[in-house]
Amino acid sequence: MIQLEKRPTPSKFWTWTTPVLAVALTMIAGGLMFALLGKNPFLAIKTIFYDPILGEFAFYYRGQLLVKAGPLILIAVGLAMGFKAGIWNIGAEGQYIMGAIVGAGVGLAFYPSDSPLILPAMILAGAIGGLLWAMIPAILKVKFSTNEILVSLLLVYVAEQIQAAMALGLLRNPDATGFPGSRNLAQWDASANLELIAGTGMHLGVVAALIAVIFAYILLSRHLMGFHIQLAGQSPKAARFGGVNPTRLVIFCMAISGALAGLAGLFEVTGPAGQISINFNSGYGFTAIIVAFLGRLHPIGILLAGLLMALTYIGGEAAQATLGIPAAAIQAFQGMLLFFLLGVDVLSNYRIRFLRKGVA
Amino acid sequence: MDLSSINWILLLASLMVAATPILLAGVGELVTERAGVLNLGVEGMMITGAICGFAIGVETNSAILGFVAAALAGAALSMLFGLLTQYLLSNQVATGLALTLFGLGLSALIGQGYIGIKGLEVAKIHIPLLSDIPVLGPILFRHDAMVYVSIFIVAGVWATLRYTRAGLILRAVGENHDAAHALGYKVVRIRLMAIAFGGACAGLGGAYLSLVRVPQWTEGMTAGAGWIALALVVFASWKPWRILIGAYLFGGLTVLQLNLQAAGMKVPVEYLAMSPYLVTILVLVIMSSGRGRAHLNAPAELGRSFHASS
Prior knowledge:
The complex is a heterodimer.
Chain A: E1 2-6, H1 12-36, H2 41-49, H3 51-54, H4 58-85, H5 92-109, H6 118-144, H7 148-168, H8 204-222, H9 224-234, H10 236-241, H11 246-270, H12 284-294, H13 299-323, H14 327-344, H15 346-349, E2 350-354
Helix pairs in contact in A: 1-2, 1-14, 2-13, 4-8, 4-9, 4-11, 4-12, 4-13, 5-6, 5-7, 5-11, 5-12, 6-7, 6-11, 8-9, 8-11, 8-13, 12-13, 12-14
Chain B: H1 8-34, H2 42-60, H3 63-87, H4 92-110, H5 136-140, H6 145-163, H7 165-175, H8 177-182, H9 187-213, H10 225-235, H11 240-262, H12 269-273, H13 275-288, H14 294-297
């Protein structure tokens, strides 16, 4: 008989081994899925995980890696703080949209000025847009103890409708004929968030993501607030006796994650995406949840997990182009990864004992 | 806007149809939560049920087989959640989210060949006498069978929880799993059954969307219905009959909003379309604050893992 014995503290070894194990298991299960779809599983896995970095056309894909990883890391770092403290902001997708809309709106208000202050103002506005959108579930939780999971998630659907309304109405490009969507922000010099080093995909959003990782690392390991976050997550009772103010903690975690998601949206709309369109959002806010967990809610882990997840996006696109593997299969693949991760996590929290029958 | 262009009898009649998906998913989640398990994967199970029900329904040309397949698919997916949370003791919030993300991908994958295919005609029931009553007949008694099945499920859940030994045990597991375990009840097994029931109901709810309400398959067609069903359980304070009231109120709001769009109200469509989500948030706020205090009615062990130390 197998019995689980709770470890007093999670095992350090397994904490960092389980993500690798989960990725390996996902490759096996994903390979089975690809085989069921009638594709060669080994070729598919190689196309997704190997070719974009080391394959023949890697020069094209490598740049994309940072473009995709940037927003994922930026959002996941913020989410992880809340998750650590037991505050579940799962509406990052909505905050991402609102950041992009508010930032783009502030910029477009000054069109066609060429002031160098426009991009900084937009960045600030983007962060504020995301932050304010995250404040709705935060304040409702603090004031009325409303469940922040449901509110933040429902607000994603509201944000998507606002986005459609903006693309068709207020922010619509007045010079365009027919097509809905705002002016192209990547082609307007004052607002363009361009590649900093050609061919690398390194844009301001990627820089912001790296800064966020560093700040989050310092906050969590060196600052009192970081200690409060860890404490509230591990033992809410001890936190209350220890004088942690739960209201402040909720507001702080939601504000950080909202602002970072808003920033991610703004950098996306001024760079890779270029404009607010009806469906400009691409699910980064949800994938970032997987990234946060895969990175063990640790900033450095999230950095690595974000790169890996970006790889599945790019490799997925490559597999779509060369092998005809549908995009939905990649989405299912990413979902599977989170399942396996949560499943094998039992190894870090519990010790497995094999007992002979009758001994108990 | 021309309010007189709205046919109010037709509007009230479509209310029950609009409410049925979230009613089914909501009552299933209620049973799961009464057993102390918070499954946030309702959206994922609904959408998987929607595509499986649609695919099997179209292939076999039988709505009944479609619904059966949807229930099985929902239950199967929920067992993934059950395995992880009950045996591997994973975090229920995170696992539920994983279930939703996975379900959305899986359904899109299965549904590739079914986009744009015409759905089935599901027959409306004609009850002699009752269906012919003026006004009330079309509103209440001229729907497809699933509308009435969903009401029977609610009644069944209510009676089971209130009057039977099985219902008492289920509630005991949800209120205090250690005590239930000490009394010799198999906590994990009971919870797995509750999770499977929740999954089957969510699958049925999804299939109702793709087989009756729309009836077609489009990617992401549940559009948050699963999350609204979760909110519905809070609104209902974990009481079956209140799920029915909540679902019909919500269904009424949805069809009213659609009718206002059609009647040409001078508000962009997008703002009307976001109203169901805003109202759901408003309801959550009202229920969780002041006298309502929904969380006081919540099962005491909601979302906690059970691990027998001996």
